[in-house]
Each structure stands twice: as C-alpha cells, then as structure tokens.
Predict the structure of Phosphoribosyl-ATP pyrophosphatase.
Amino acid sequence: MKTFDELFAELSEKARTRPADSGTVAALDAGVHAQGKKLLEEAGEVWLAAEHESDDAVALEVSQLLYRAQVILLGRGIGLDQVYKHL
Ligand SMILES: N=c1c2ncn([C@@H]3O[C@H](COP(=O)(O)OP(=O)(O)OP(=O)(O)O)[C@@H](O)[C@H]3O)c2ncn1[C@@H]1O[C@H](COP(=O)(O)O)[C@@H](O)[C@H]1O
C-alpha cells in the first residue's frame, strides 16, 4: 500500500531514471494528448463504477484516475506543493 505522495515520489524517480519496463516512462513519452485521453478514460470509469459497481471497484478506478493525474503533473513538471496550495 502507498500514499498519494509516495506514488508521486516513485513516479518522479521513474521519470528521472527512465527504466525500460516502466509504463510511466512510456506514458510520459506518449505526450500530453495521450495522457489526457487516459485521464478522461479513467474519469469515465470512475463515474460508471460509482453508478453500477462495488465500493472496491470504485476505489480501484479512483486509484487509476489519481495515477493518471500524477502523470499529467509529471509531464508538465508540476510538483505536488503547487497543487496543494490550491486545496
Ligand atoms: N498506480 C499505477 C497505475 N494505475 C493505473 N496504471 C496503468 O493504467 C492501466 C489501467 O488502465 P486501463 O484501464 O486503461 O487498462 P488498459 O487499457 O488495459 O492498460 P494500458 O493498455 O493502457 O496499459 C494499468 O494497466 C497501468 O498500465 C498504473 N500504472 C502504474 N501504477 C503504479 O505506478 C508505479 C510505477 O509503475 P511503472 O512506471 O509501470 O513502473 C507502480 O508503483 C504502479 O503500481
């Protein structure tokens, strides 16, 4: 299990070291258009799960949405502090 901040630290390290088997590196290399499509896809899956599926299914989809939001942030070079100041 990991927190939102821990995941962001892990993904930042992946972006820095660029391991060949990293899906995050591939997602970053795919560019913002592909990243945005994934984000919207996950948002839709959260919505559908919330309407029709179990609590655990909703939690899974939200975890994937959070991951995709972090990829967008990493792609733009935006840190979590910059996000948190708006919360
Ligand atoms: N939390 C996630 C995470 N959430 C979602 N995803 C990706 O999103 C996919 C699920 O999205 P979809 O429903 O679109 O599934 P899919 O279309 O079958 O998948 P793709 O073909 O798009 O890969 C997963 O298969 C992963 O590729 C994630 N990929 C990685 N992480 C975490 O990120 C960390 C680094 O991962 P790597 O960069 O791959 O090493 C690890 O700790 C992982 O747990």
The chain has a mean pLDDT of 98.
